[in-house]
């Protein structure tokens, strides 16, 4: 990989201030462009070098302090795209760090998976970055107008940009929206790698979707940071996300369903469950055809999932606290049960 300048990588005066204490200690700043099992590639502005790390939370997009070829410290993140860990543990998995734009990639198909789009938008809003929806494969023959109408209805306050990487349609409009650090998210086969190749000029591995079921095969196997064309920033391509669990994403869910929250504010009762209570503005909107019943159910589903994830996290923290207390008690008992303790 060729060297990436600090300007393209996103280094600014705020990062310089954050790094100042490490600079005083003789450390070198760099940005992680790829992570692979205890080793990572870090761009220092002058070169991209291989570095080792012992921390488990180093992620593509992190700014780090290097001691030679070792990651000594990860600088505090401005934003982070986090999903529930695929391993089932209660802690979240950081997919990308210090992101400015989250591009939610949805293919133009006869049946748009609106539930997945809403889930990815909640994830994007929670990250602290700006979401953008990218409708890919508009040359597939599916009804583009209908797909745009459906996505616009769930992407509240978010730009929806139709594109075709094959024909080049919409890519200029998309490129104008993608500045700073951009991450692409979506399931396999939606066209992320093809889109990334068009936006960066990199020759990324792209394989056709399976003819049998139309589903894509994984082409991107790890998250990697690449320079955007024109030097406007960098892009992080991600492997396809089969499962997208929420982790501590209450604010993101609220932002993704801002229309439901706005209606709920007009309900007669502040604790309205929107399940038949008198004066329910949400149900009134559904009855009037202004809000899809499916959208309310999706909102409830994501709220329940997020509450369950939060309960698991609380249980884990309580368990860790109890384990720490038991360890301290054992140390205390061992100290006072040593032979000769207390004798003079």
TrEMBL record:
GTP binds at residues 136-139, 186-194. Binds 1 zinc ion per subunit. Keywords: Cytoplasm, GTP-binding, Hydrolase, Metal-binding, Nucleotide-binding, Ribosome biogenesis, RNA-binding, rRNA-binding, Zinc. Zn(2+) binds at residues 267, 272, 274, 280. It comes from the Bacteria. Residues 314-328 have a biased composition (Basic and acidic residues). It is an enzyme of class 3 (hydrolase). Its main location: cytoplasm. It is found in: Cytoplasm. Residues 97-242 form the EngC GTPase domain. Residues 314-344 are annotated as: Disordered. Its cofactor is Zn(2+). Its EC number is 3.6.1.-. InterPro entries: P-loop_NTPase, Ribosome_biogen_GTPase_RsgA, RsgA_GTPase_dom. The keyword Cell membrane does not apply. Belongs to the TRAFAC class YlqF/YawG GTPase family. RsgA subfamily. Monomer. Associates with 30S ribosomal subunit, binds 16S rRNA. HAMAP family: GTPase_RsgA. NCBIfam families: ribosome small subunit-dependent GTPase A. One of several proteins that assist in the late maturation steps of the functional core of the 30S ribosomal subunit. Helps release RbfA from mature subunits. May play a role in the assembly of ribosomal proteins into the subunit. Circularly permuted GTPase that catalyzes slow GTP hydrolysis, GTPase activity is stimulated by the 30S ribosomal subunit. This is Small ribosomal subunit biogenesis GTPase RsgA. It comes from Cryptosporangium japonicum.
């Amino acid at each position: 990989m060729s060297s990436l300048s600090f300007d393209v990588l996103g280094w600014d005066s705020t990062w310089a201030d954050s790094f100042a204490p490490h600079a005083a200690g003789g450390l070198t700043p760099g940005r992680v462009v790829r992570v692979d099992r205890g080793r990572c590639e870090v761009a220092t502005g002058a070169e991209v070098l291989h570095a080792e790390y012992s921390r488990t939370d180093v992620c593509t997009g992190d700014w780090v302090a290097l001691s030679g070829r070792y990651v000594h410290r990860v600088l505090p993140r401005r934003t982070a795209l986090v999903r529930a860990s695929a391993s089932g543990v209660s802690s979240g998995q950081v997919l990308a760090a210090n992101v400015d734009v989250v591009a939610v990639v949805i293919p133009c198909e006869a049946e748009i998976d609106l539930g997945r789009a809403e889930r990815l938008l909640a994830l994007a809003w929670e990250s602290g970055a700006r979401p953008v929806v990218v409708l890919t494969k508009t040359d597939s023959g599916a009804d583009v107008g209908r797909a745009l109408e459906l996505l616009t209805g769930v992407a509240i306050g978010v730009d929806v940009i139709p594109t075709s990487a094959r024909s080049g349609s919409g890519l200029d409009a998309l490129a104008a929206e993608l500045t700073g650090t951009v991450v692409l998210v979506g399931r396999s086969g939606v066209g992320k790698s093809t889109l990334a190749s068009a936006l960066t000029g990199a020759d990324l591995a792209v394989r056709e979707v399976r003819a049998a079921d139309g589903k894509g095969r994984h082409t991107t196997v790890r998250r990697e940071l690449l320079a955007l064309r024109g030097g406007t920033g960098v892009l992080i391509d991600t492997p396809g996300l089969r499962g997208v669990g929420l982790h501590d994403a209450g604010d993101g869910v609220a932002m993704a369903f801002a229309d439901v929250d706005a209606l709920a504010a007009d309900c007669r009762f502040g604790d309205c469950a929107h399940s038949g209570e008198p004066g329910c503005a949400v149900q009134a909107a559904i009855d009037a055809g202004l809000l899809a019943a499916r959208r309310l159910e999706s909102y409830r589903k994501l709220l329940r999932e997020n509450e369950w994830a939060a309960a698991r996290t609380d249980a884990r923290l309580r368990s860790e606290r109890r384990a720490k207390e038991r360890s301290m008690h054992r140390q205390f008992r061992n100290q006072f049960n040593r032979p000769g303790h207390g004798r003079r």
